[in-house]
């Protein structure tokens, strides 16, 4: 498992009974987590002194309950700064486990010895975009949500990357890739974090099990002759590491690189366990 264990401003303190107790900077949040199927005594003080608690509804969705939590605050990872705010469906605007991937590809970019162009698809609030830009890459950041791209720009400004070579695109990722192929553009690296399910601007249905393989095939056409890396993240149960590995090995075989896939996770400080948080597939030359 690839573990995001270099955080100072974030911590999974404990997990029990379908929930995790987290520290985001100086604030404590309790959020549901489907991986936490065990129950142990909630002895950590934070379970009773939380600043925010997301209650899952039996009818789907849920709602936040707040206890002295600001509308927005910041946390840091190395030189990066992220603006957080609790919003619908339990999220805060950041997936801390992805730091394991940020560290991996940042080192590759810094050691490449050449200019690196990165395409970040389904780019959300820009964690990977900022990590790549801070490492010296020029980045094209694509997300269909105007609000998420605006949030990512805020994070770039807060991280001192306002003038970094980042191209911000609000667009459907499939349509954008198709247009880039027609334009003849190429990238040295691709990052994607596709949703399990979604709809395009004209009602196109994205279901990851059906859509991901042809989309990766499409994206392969955008790679340069010697691509630095290709990263795919999955939070979908059916897309296990072995599936990611087989898919990427099949599509990218002509580059004669290596493909590895594994779970990504976060250390739990109270008990020494590692909480699994999805999977990633990594191609590199």
Concise description?
The chain is an alpha/beta fold. It contains six helices and 17 strands. Strand 13 and strand 14 (205-207) form a beta hairpin.
Explain this structure.
The protein is α/β, with parallel strands linked by helices. The chain folds into two domains: 83 residues, Immunoglobulin-like (Sandwich); 189 residues, Vaccinia Virus protein VP39 (Rossmann fold, 3-Layer(aba) Sandwich), CATH 3.40.50. 24% of the residues lie in helices and 33% in strands. The chain is built from six helices and 17 strands. The strands form four sheets. The protein has an eight-stranded mixed β-sheet with strand order 1-16-17-15-12-9-10-11. α2 links the parallel β9 and β10. The longest helix is centred in the middle third of the chain and has 13 residues. The chain is globular. It starts with a strand and ends with a strand.
Give me the secondary-structure topology.
Blueprint: E1 2-3, E2 10-16, E3 19-24, E4 27-32, E5 52-56, E6 62-66, E7 73-77, E8 80-84, H1 99-111, E9 117-121, H2 127-134, E10 138-143, H3 146-158, E11 166-170, H4 173-183, E12 189-192, E13 197-199, E14 205-207, H5 208-220, E15 229-234, H6 241-251, E16 258-267, E17 274-284
Helix pairs in contact: 1-2
**Rg over C-alpha atoms, rounded to the nearest angstrom:** 19 Å
Proportion of beta-strand residues: 25-35%
Could you report the average pLDDT, rounded to the nearest whole number? 95
For the record, the CATH architecture of the largest domain stands as 3-Layer(aba) Sandwich
SS-derived structural category: alpha/beta
The helix content is 10-25%
Question: Could you name the ranges where pLDDT drops below 50 across 5 or more consecutive residues?
Answer: none
The backbone outline, from C-alpha atoms, is globular
CATH topology of the largest domain: Rossmann fold
Distance between the termini: 21 Å
How many beta strands in the DSSP annotation? 17
Instruction: State the CATH superfamily name of the largest domain.
Output: Vaccinia Virus protein VP39
Please work out how many helical segments DSSP would assign: 6
Helix-strand topology string = EEEEEEEEHEHEHEHEEEHEHEE
Determine and state the CATH class of the largest domain: Alpha Beta
Count of structural domains: 2
- Report on the biggest sheet: 8 strands, mixed
Give, in spatial order, the strands making up the sheet with the most strands: 1-16-17-15-12-9-10-11
């Amino acid at each position: 498992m690839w573990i995001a264990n270099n955080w100072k401003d974030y911590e999974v303190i404990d997990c029990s009974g379908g929930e995790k107790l987290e520290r985001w900077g100086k604030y404590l949040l309790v959020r549901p987590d489907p991986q936490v199927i065990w129950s142990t005594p909630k002895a950590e003080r934070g379970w009773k002194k939380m600043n925010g608690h997301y209650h899952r509804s039996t009818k789907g969705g849920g709602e936040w309950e707040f206890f002295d939590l600001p509308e927005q605050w910041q946390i840091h990872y190395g030189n990066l700064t992220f603006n957080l705010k609790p919003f619908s469906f339990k999220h805060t605007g950041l997936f801390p486990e992805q730091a394991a991937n940020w560290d991996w590809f940042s080192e590759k970019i810094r050691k490449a010895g050449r200019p690196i162009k990165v395409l970040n698809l389904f780019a959300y609030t820009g964690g990977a975009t900022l990590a790549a830009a801070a490492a010296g890459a020029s980045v094209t950041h694509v997300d269909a949500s105007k609000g998420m791209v605006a949030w990512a720009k805020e994070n770039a400004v807060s991280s001192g990357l306002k003038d970094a070579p980042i191209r911000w695109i609000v667009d459907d990722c499939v349509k954008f890739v198709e247009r880039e192929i027609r334009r003849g553009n190429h990238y040295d690296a691709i990052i994607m974090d596709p949703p399990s399910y979604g709809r395009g601007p004209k009602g196109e249905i994205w279901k990851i099990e059906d859509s991901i393989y042809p989309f990766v095939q499409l994206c392969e056409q955008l790679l340069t002759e010697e691509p630095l890396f290709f990263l795919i993240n999955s939070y979908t149960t059916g897309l296990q590491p072995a599936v990611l590995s087989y898919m990427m090995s099949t599509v990218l075989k002509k580059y004669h690189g290596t493909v590895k896939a594994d779970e990504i996770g976060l250390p739990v400080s109270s008990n020494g366990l590692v909480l699994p948080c999805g999977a990633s597939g990594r191609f590199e030359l």
